[in-house]
Amino acid sequence: MSKITDAPNMNEKAPKQVPFWIFARKIVDRMLFSGKFKCNTKVIKHGEITSFKKEPALVISNHASMFDFANVDKVTAPQCAQCVTSIEIFIGILFYFLKYFGNFPKRKFTMDMNILRTMRTIVKDYKKSICIYPETRFSFAGIPEHFDEGIAKLAKFLDVRIVLILQRGSYLSSPQWHKHPYHPVQSYCDVYEISKDEVRNTDADKLQEKLIKMFDYNEYKWYNENGPKSKNKIRADGLHQILYKCPVCGTEYEMDSKGTKIWCNHCHTEWEMADDYELVQKDGKSKFKLVPDWWLWEKEETMKDHKNKSYRFEDDVVVEHLDNFKDGFVKKGIAHMVFDKDGMRLDGVMDNNEEFHFFKKCSEIPDIHLELNYKKQEEHAIDVTTNADTWFVYPINKSKHVIKLNWMGRQLFLESKK
Fold first, then answer.
1. What is the value of pTM for the model shown?
2. CA distances, 39 to each of 28, 42, 186 (Å)
3. What is the pLDDT of residues 277-333, one digit of tens each?
4. Among 249, 252, 237, 248, residue whose Cα is nearest residue 401
């Protein structure tokens, strides 16, 4: 097994779970379901769910916050599924925890054949379940992000049943635009199973279509209609990071938020997020009832702008490289970044006076992962990867603008395939 000081090695053999550390993992889970976290998740099974001790599964779940991991453990108990985990999570002491939990790293939006071999070994030889998050990133607005198009084919390759978990409450407890402090709400896990026989006998395209239809959720809508009402007095704090465009005057990046309010600094229109999560406009009728409505409108506006004038993001960025799991991301210097229909390019001279050049065509970037306020920093990080390296880059002048990359990475990829 690699050491924490080694450069990330993506070709290691499939890790085995260590019983003591699985016991420790369950204690951590208990801490999340009690104490100040109070993540008292209720599991709702739809139909018969085969015991995870009896038969391994490909577990897929939506992803919104750190509570997701404990919720998946609660569903798969008494076993703990081995998780495909984003490589940057292995930094520091978590390296040992995750390794002994049986988790294994993956660079986002890259093709890695060794991951397939690892997963096959785990389900066939170790008889353990695999957990993946098919959106490959956190949900920013409590609704589905892009669902990976290869999930059905993966299930067929592994020759296992699929257990689908839809989590509710995890997002509202710790949204990516305001991760801390936690404000847990009553959470739920809806659990569904597609049998191994159905996986084997269903065409991959039809199975994929079924999964996408099942993988549907809207946290704001559900809690608005079903409750309980929010007791969080800062439930809108940071919301302007995703609701960046004013629907009244159309100005971008002039929004701000605090407590339960969000407002536009340009036209001074103000909204309050009520305790049922409805957006109530002061002195007027709100164009949008809930956060996802506003969020999807911003996406439509971004696509219109792109159609009229091809999208382009350009800024100087601070470049950090994942050297090893002990040191984590190490600052290398400043580069100039351009992302448009031609691809993603970074050029600059690093602090050690070495030139740095990176280029990737849009056809090689199926999506872009963003980290808002990464490691409690004010800046937002853009995840830049190859099969061999991971960088986090932080825009210096246009940090607020990165949110559009959440859509445009995928859009430019699709256009490059035409």
1. 0.94
2. 12, 9, 7
3. 999 999 888 899 999 999 999 999 999 999 999 999 999 999 999 999 999 999 999
4. 252
